DNA sequence: AGTATCTACTTGTTTACACAAGAAGTCCTT
DNA sequence: AAGGACTTCTTGTGTAAACAAGTAGATACT
């Protein structure tokens, strides 16, 4: 008997679809609240809430994106008044990225929507099983990096 | 003590990064073998290997994408000679999508790379824990759909 | 000092996504 | 048979990804 590959049952496909549903749901929540924010922009903001004034290089590194992606993501966020670029005091190559008053004030509301999305996703999932899932995801990241 | 939200530790972020690593790895494998194929295109092909001659609407539905995305994805795949559009015999609205001789011949090689990617991702992960993770992913999809 | 190398960032190109709106064909109902 | 509703697909627009190539500033070496 042939053991056929089925896309639908594969780890890659399930991961991909679950991830996309979560990011789409978060995007929808932002939109429903009238916030012009994408989940990618939220990733950047969230890093700045943890530590304001990081370089683009650092933001790319910790978010595991390449620099061109972050460069343009930041362009869009500046257009929307979420962040600003400031020159590094001594190294002219470097841009330091800072939150604006506007985005600082929104931290709680944005964070609440992120947490809400995770709670919706994790609804009625056993806590131990969720923990195991998170560990597996960590290991996948280690394996592929 | 304040229980702060940490992006890095969140389900959404871990899912997103693990998923992106898997799709990027699959893309890289295709490229290394000289195959002009993206993971999104592989999703479509894989569905056609299961059942040739599906409509765009059906392909969009089962892959959980919207129709415009599938329409343009199919445009690209036609350009690369992976599939063809054929008119439905009685309903002129409908395009039926068929594999080409070329893509039919590649099924085994493409599938091998998909399986290899999953094996790399799942390396040294306990089988029971992986199974739990897959179930959690299924439940996340149910919760958010 | 002068050249080579490295670093941080930007620009160009292609692929793909989501949402909105439009075009064309089919079906239903009277 | 005619009008309206529904279905299928395409086009328009904006966001973001990866990879390649380019620019400008800092550093290191002789």
TrEMBL record, chains A, B:
Gene3D superfamilies: Winged helix-like DNA-binding domain superfamily/Winged helix DNA-binding domain
This protein's UniProt keywords: DNA-binding, Transcription, Transcription regulation
InterPro entries per record: HTH_MarR-typ, Tscrpt_reg_MarR-type_CS, WH-like_DNA-bd_sf, WH_DNA-bd_sf
Pfam families per UniProt: MarR (PF01047)
SMART domains on file: HTH_MARR (SM00347)
SUPFAM superfamilies in alphabetical order: Winged helix' DNA-binding domain (SSF46785)
Domain HTH marR-type, chain residue ranges per copy: 8-142
A GO MF term: DNA-binding transcription factor activity
Residues in the signal sequence: none
Top-rank lineage group of the source organism: Bacteria
Protein name: HTH marR-type domain-containing protein
Protein source organism: Pseudobacillus wudalianchiensis
């Amino acid at each position: 008997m042939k053991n056929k590959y089925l896309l639908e049952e594969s780890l890659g496909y399930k991961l991909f679809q679950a991830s996309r549903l979560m990011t789409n749901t978060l995007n929808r929540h932002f939109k429903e609240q009238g916030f012009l924010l994408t989940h990618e922009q939220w990733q950047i903001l969230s890093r700045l809430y943890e530590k304001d004034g990081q370089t683009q290089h650092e933001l790319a590194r910790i978010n595991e994106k390449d620099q061109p992606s972050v460069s343009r993501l930041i362009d869009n966020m500046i257009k929307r008044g979420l962040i600003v670029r400031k020159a590094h005091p001594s190294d002219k190559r470097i841009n330091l990225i800072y939150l604006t008053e506007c985005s600082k004030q929104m931290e709680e509301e944005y964070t609440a929507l992120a947490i809400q999305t995770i709670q919706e996703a994790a609804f009625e999932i056993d806590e131990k099983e969720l923990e195991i899932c998170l560990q597996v995801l960590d290991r996948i990241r280690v394996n592929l990096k």
